[in-house]
Amino acid sequence: MAKTGKFQRKSKVGQSIPTASMGDIVFLLLVFFMVTTIFKLEDGLPVEMPKAEAGVEVPRERVSHIWVDRAGNISINDNLVATEQIESIIYSKLVANPAIIVAFNVDKQVPFRRVDQVMEELKQANATRVSFTAEFEKGR
Predict the structure, then answer these.
(1) Are 101 and 138 in contact (CB under 8 A)?
(2) What is the DSSP string of 20-72?
(3) Tell me, what's the pLDDT at 38?
(4) Residue 82, class by beta-carbon neighbours within 10 Å (0-12 exposed, 13-18 middle, 19+ buried)?
(5) In this predicted structure, what is the pLDDT of residue 104?
(6) What is the pLDDT of residue 136?
(7) Which of 18, 36, 59, 104 is the most buried (most CB within 10 A)?
(8) Is the dihedral of CA 54, 107, 138, 42 positive or negative?
């Protein structure tokens, strides 16, 4: 009589995924994404702000920043503009969002004549919610 159905395997083949270098790959991907990601906030123009004693924070989506640097350059949300363009730009922002606040950031070395020109443009645009931004004084 012949023996049937009783074959035995000598070695078992395991099914597994090698994970020895998985940590290295994850670390390299993490470093890659950290290096290539750019977090850019609004830079505006280089402005040295006057000092203040108190202030209130407002959500970024409700604020439109106007920067005036020492040379008299005007920037609205990181875009250089001429004085004559301020009225139309701010008016369109107010139509899109009536609750918008205009944050007016002026270097303390800017002549008041330049500040007055910008304020007149804001008045023509009917911007009634204007905030004069200042830095906090240290030690008070």
Answers:
(1) no
(2) TTHHHHHHHHHHHHHHH--------S---PPEES------GGGEEEEEE-TT-
(3) 78
(4) exposed
(5) 85
(6) 46
(7) 104
(8) positive
Long-range pairs of 82-87 with CB within 8 A, sequence gap ≥ 24? 83/117, 83/118, 83/121, 84/121, 86/118, 86/121, 86/122, 86/125, 87/121, 87/122, 87/124, 87/125
CB 137 within 8 A of CB 51: yes
Q: How many domains does the chain have?
A: 1
Distance CA 32, CA 113 (A): 49
Among residues 95, 32, 96, 125, which one has the least CA distance to residue 104? 125
Q: Which two tokens stand for residue 69?
A: 């640097």
Please give the structure tokens belonging to residue 30: 């993490």
Q: Is residue 37 part of a domain?
A: no
Domain of residue 126, CATH code: 3.30.420.270
131 occurs within a structural domain: yes
* Residue 49 amino acid letter: M
The per-residue pLDDT for 140 is 44
CB 86 within 8 A of CB 125: yes
**10-residue stretch averages of pLDDT, the chain, 140 residues long:** 64 75 90 84 69 66 85 87 90 89 85 89 89 58
